[in-house]
Design a protein that fits this description.
The protein is of the alpha/beta class. It has helices spanning 3-9, 33-57, 74-81, 100-103, 109-112, 134-137, 139-144, 156-173, 187-199, 209-215, 218-232, 247-264, 274-289, and strands at residues 11-12, 61-68, 90-94, 121-125, 176-184, 239-243. Helix 2 packs parallel to helix 12. It is globular, with a radius of gyration of 21 Å. It binds adenosine-5'-triphosphate and magnesium ion. Magnesium ion binds at residues 70, 208, 211.
Length: 290
């Protein structure tokens, strides 16, 4: 699988980004779900090997951030793409509306507590990016936060972007590799998925009335996403704008990005030095004696 190429095609790491240049229904050169599924399974197997080394080496951490409109498939991606990795080295956190305690702190506080340890893969299902998305689209949420009013001015979004960029640079300098995914679903496809949630009994539980309400703010969200990506896509913490109208392709692209990232870290099992070798030999001798 040409993981590198597929990963690169959807990578954004500069200010020159326009959402309309990215087609949610794109499937690259892939035309069949079956071929993609086979490549995905191979990718997942390789990912498991690399995760084992990441864990053993205990130097790097990998943070994967997922943002999207409702029904774009965040949950499914996390379930499928991470299906082969060892749960012991992987943590998933979902961020909903902040609690009273969380609102007592700065906007990065709650996510900072859940950052992955060295050797681990951390997955954020939504993240501090909600602070420049839902909070921007609904000004009343910003008003209900407890930031001193004199600090909430016209430049609030630029200030938040700057804080996020600085935070991510700090994390990457400490050994946390950050990859961010915007699952780019079309308004038309979202409608189909909502209808399925309403019509198919086994999907009813996924439906929430607020999803329809957020859909009415579609254009505002698209603008907020575009501005967010422009301002926070960097070389060390790029965004991937992943086509999300075809779930099989979304999964393939995300797995390629993760694989490509792990491959780039040059992971290896810790080297055994002479002292350790002697210790192992002595242990073996003892074990064989009895
Ligand atoms: P799913 O619907 O697939 O179960 P979800 O991530 O949409 O998953 P929900 O419980 O439906 O989960 O929604 C969580 C809600 O919390 C979203 O509408 C999101 O915008 C909101 N949210 C997350 N972070 C913040 C924040 N910092 N401030 C305000 N609202 C937030
Ligand atoms: Mg939801």
């Amino acid at each position: 699988m040409k993981t590198e190429k597929l990963a690169k095609a959807y990578r954004v790491d500069s200010k020159h980004f326009r959402l309309k240049d990215f087609d949610p229904a794109d499937t690259g050169h892939w035309h069949s779900k079956e071929n993609a599924e086979e490549a995905l399974q191979q990718g997942i197997a390789r990912m498991a090997e690399l995760q084992d080394k990441l864990y053993a080496q205990d130097r790097w951490a990998l943070l994967l951030i997922f943002q999207a409109m409702d029904a774009a498939g965040k949950d499914g991606i996390i379930k499928h793409v991470m299906s082969g990795v060892n749960p012991q080295g992987c943590q998933v956190y979902s961020f909903k509306a902040p609690s009273d305690l969380e609102l007592q702190h700065d906007f990065l506080w709650r996510t900072t507590r859940d950052l992955p340890e060295r050797g681990h893969i951390g997955i954020f299902n939504r993240s501090y990016y909600e602070e420049v998305l839902v909070v921007r689209v609904h000004p009343e949420i910003l008003a209900s936060q407890k930031t001193p009013p004199s600090l909430v001015g016209k430049k609030i979004w630029d200030e938040r972007f700057e804080d996020i960029r600085t935070f991510e640079r700090h994390m990457s300098r400490s050994g946390t590799v950050i990859r961010k995914f915007f699952l780019n679903v079309s308004k038309k496809e979202q409608k189909q998925r909502f209808l399925a949630r309403l019509e198919e009994p086994e999907k009813n539980w996924k439906f929430s009335a607020s999803d329809i309400h957020e859909r009415q703010c579609w254009d505002n969200y698209q603008e907020a996403y575009e501005d967010m990506i422009r301002n926070t896509a960097t070389g060390h913490a790029p965004w991937y704008v992943v086509p999300a109208d075809n779930k099989w392709f979304t999964r393939l692209v995300v797995s390629c990005v993760i694989l490509d990232t792990l491959e780039s870290l040059d992971l290896s099992y810790p080297k055994v030095d002479d002292a350790k070798r002697r210790e192992l030999a002595a242990a073996k001798k003892l074990l064989l004696k009895k």
